[in-house]
Amino acid sequence: MILIRKSIKLGMLAALLVLTPVHAFAGPYEDAQKASRDQEYTKAVSLFKPLAEADNDDAQWYMGTFYRKGQGVNKSYEKAFYWYGRSAGNGDSDSQYELAQLYYNGLGTAKDHKSAFKWYLKAANQGNKDAPYDVAYAYKMGDGVKKSYKKAVKWYQISSDNGNNAASVELGILYELGKGTKENTRKAAKLYVKAADNGNAEGLYHIARFYYFGIAVYTDKKEGIRLYKQAAALGNEKAIQKLQKLGIKNDLTGDPAYTAYLKKDFKGAIKIWTDRASHGEVAAMVNLGNVYKSVDVVKDYKKAIGWYEPAITLHNTEAMVELGDMYRYAQGVPRDYSKALQLYKKAARANYPKGVYTLATMVDNGYGVERDMDLAMSMYQNAADMGSEDAKDMLKFYRDKAIREARWEQMNANLDAISARIARQKRECDELAYKGNLEASRRSGQYHSYSYQAPTRCLGSNVNR
To answer: Which of 141, 248, 310, 388 could connect to 383 by a Cys-Cys bridge, CB 3.0–4.6 Å?
Structure first.
């Protein structure tokens, strides 16, 4: 690995500048950096060493790294420990982190997790991007410091904000379990997604678990299995074991192009698929179309169409539907329902379930064709019978909708019947009250008083208003 460091910090050169003019000093340091970049490590060592001995912390970091890696010198953790120690004492956060690593692993010195934590914390407080994760881990495990989940949450958050995917996952676990913070599965889900979106296998596994079991998101076993497969393809053992337990074969494992894609190495995936496509592999053509169509960092609708079209000439039904979608949703081309219909029909005639389903959605919504719900429902059923999960979901939606509408109509009918019965009873009770009061008035005399007594059924509030 080529070593590249920040520019020399003149504030650290006071001792050397007493003896050497600034203009004379700049040359050797720049020469040493260039030698390191060019991997001329023996030369770099000879140039950095006098600067390091003059107490420049940057040069001391270089010397520590040369000895740790055995570049230009014989590998020596003891000498690496010496140089990192001098640089760390001078306040260099990178050296403080490396010194902590040596203490933690017992390289060049006795293993000492308390000292390791001290230097991790110093480095983290000075802005080192790697150290917050190690500080958080120490607090979480009580490793070299008293255990504190609350402080672990704080430092994992800093590390996550620095872009550390592992920290996002660990912080998600703490939120999920409610350790060091209030339990919050929604925050946990967001953190798992953040890691997963960056190609982190552990993040993929956890968000797959959330979908499969319906934790903080709606239950979607299909999506859960899809994500389990992705995590397994990246080597996550828990995802591999889960798929084995479910008896599901992972068709994504072992494909270098797809593995690169999952790791967000889109250029690497494109390179492999382009080579395969040039040798006539239709699946590679479709994958290229999908990447250029959907992935923002490489999105190029023209290239997507350029790969879908040759795949269609080779009768690939997935490419037909994907290109049909581009015309339907005006992705890189003017909206054209007739072209979308033509492509969907072609896929449907080839008995492609998604082709039948997408054609059904066009008939359902009246896009480019007269709306016909009977025909759409028939086509949804055909697609569902062919295994389309989307079509099954649509049929369920309409069944549930019909049930809801029937319940609503029945409820309204019941309310109307109740209202009619109350009105009828009120009329009857009003009539009885009128006649009863007339009779009571007729029968009342000088020595006797009569009053109307309403029947029990007329005593309710609904009939006496």
So the answer is: 388
Are 350 and 332 in the same domain? yes
For residue 191, being part of any structural domain is answered with no
Last residue of a domain, one of 397, 420, 436: 397
Positive or negative: CA dihedral 10, 14, 20, 21: positive
Q: Which residue has the tokens 């800093």?
A: 158
Tell me: do 429 and 323 sit in the same domain.
no
pLDDT tops 60 at residue 218: yes
Residue 79's domain is classified under what CATH number? 1.25.40.10
d(CA 151, CA 162): 17
Tokens at 8, concatenated = 């020399």
Same structural domain, 270 and 385: yes
Query: pLDDT tens-digit profile of 134-193?
Result: 999 999 999 999 999 999 999 999 999 999 999 999 999 999 999 999 999 999 999 999
Number of domains within the chain: 3
Distances in whole angstroms, Cα of residue 187 to Cα of each of 135, 207, 224, 351: 22, 12, 18, 43
Q: CB–CB of 290/265 below 8 Å?
A: no
DSSP state of 9: -
Indicate the helix (H) or strand (E) that contains 211: helix 201-213
Domain shared by 402 and 335, yes or no:
no
| 144, 119 contact by CB (below 8 A) | no
Q: pLDDT tens across 185-200, in order?
A: 999 999 999 999 998 9
Supply the range of the domain harboring residue 347: 266-397
- Return d(Cα 183, Cα 269) in angstroms, integer: 39
Q: 353-365 vs 373-385: helix axis angle to the nearest 10?
A: 160
273 shares its domain with 372: yes
- Please name the residue that has the structure tokens 């500080």: 135
Rounded-to-integer distance, Cα 255 and Cα 258, Å: 5
